[in-house]
């Protein structure tokens, strides 16, 4: 009996180490495409404080869970019939029942939302399982000031039509049009602290690089590197930067590319997620700009970013 027990423990140990694939062994394709993001949230949220005829309030950020005991999936002004109802709402972690009149219910759709959207940059695609990562930071719905959970989400390619240049104290941004008339290119499964993650659903897009080795922060060097992004139409380009401060999980850089500085003033909104390459290795993704010094940017290491991707 003792011999069988020892054998079983050794077998489990060997099996674990045979199939565990270290992060360092991964190769990812750095992308750089501008993308449009659409997230469906699990509930409708109230956008403003609303005083009802009953004297009760709907408060901003209230989640509408049920109407007359029925879970709310879709709500529009055209949905008949409207009658006085009871809303079950969640506020501050607690549930409340609120009476609402038929006329108030009919016009409620103007003051609620269950979707949020935005633009950013596609960071990578894993050619082995077609999973992707993008943005390098979590999506925040600014009208509600929340980090929405994902019910489901869609990813579309976008095309840059105009650039608002960054200036000290005044962040610039990309003006883009989403290609939503085309099929969605990916599903969104997670909205995490270091980006959005999901499955790529279309043939691989053209990229400037083949799958590249990824490296840890301690292996990143100060000095020249390249940022991959799009600043015109759907053309993906690489631009020179200089990495100047590195930690285990993040690093900072300065934009040195003259053409990029002339076009954008440095880092602009919509560049979040742009891949960064150094010495033909995939090192990270843009996450933030320095508002007072838009030629300076911050990035997350790619190893740290993929740690937060769904397993």
TrEMBL record:
Pfam families: Peptidase_S55. Residues 89-311 form the Peptidase S55 domain. PROSITE patterns: SPOIVB (PS51494). InterPro entries: Peptidase_S55. It comes from the Bacteria. This is Peptidase. It comes from Lysinibacillus odysseyi 34hs-1 = NBRC 100172.
């Amino acid at each position: 009996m003792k011999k069988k027990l020892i054998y079983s423990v050794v077998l489990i140990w060997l099996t674990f180490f045979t199939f565990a694939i270290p992060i360092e062994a991964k190769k990812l394709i750095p992308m750089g495409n501008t993308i449009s993001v659409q997230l469906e949230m699990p509930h409708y949220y109230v956008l403003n404080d609303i005083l009802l005829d009953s004297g009760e309030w709907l408060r901003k950020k209230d989640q509408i869970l049920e109407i007359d005991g029925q879970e709310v999936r879709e709500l529009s002004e055209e949905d008949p019939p409207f009658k006085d109802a009871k809303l079950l709402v969640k506020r501050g972690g607690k549930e409340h029942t609120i009476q609402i009149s038929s006329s108030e219910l009919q016009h409620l759709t103007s003051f609620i939302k269950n979707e949020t959207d935005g633009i950013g940059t596609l960071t990578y695609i894993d050619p082995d399982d077609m999973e992707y990562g993008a943005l390098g930071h979590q999506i925040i719905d600014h009208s509600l000031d929340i980090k929405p959970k994902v019910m489901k989400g869609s990813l579309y390619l976008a095309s840059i039509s105009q650039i608002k240049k960054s200036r000290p104290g005044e962040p610039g941004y990309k003006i883009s049009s989403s290609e939503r008339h085309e099929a969605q290119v990916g599903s969104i499964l997670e909205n995490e602290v270091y980006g959005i993650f999901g499955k790529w659903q279309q043939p691989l897009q053209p990229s400037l690089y083949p799958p590249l080795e990824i490296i840890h922060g301690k292996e990143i060097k100060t000095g020249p590197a390249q940022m991959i992004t799009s600043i015109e139409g759907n053309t993906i380009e690489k631009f020179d930067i200089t990495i100047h401060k590195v930690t285990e999980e993040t690093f900072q850089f300065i934009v040195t590319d003259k053409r990029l500085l002339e076009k954008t003033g440095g880092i602009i909104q919509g560049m979040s997620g742009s891949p960064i390459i150094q010495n033909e290795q995939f090192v990270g993704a843009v996450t933030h700009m320095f508002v007072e010094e838009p030629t300076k940017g911050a990035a997350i290491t790619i190893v740290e970013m993929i740690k937060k991707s769904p397993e």
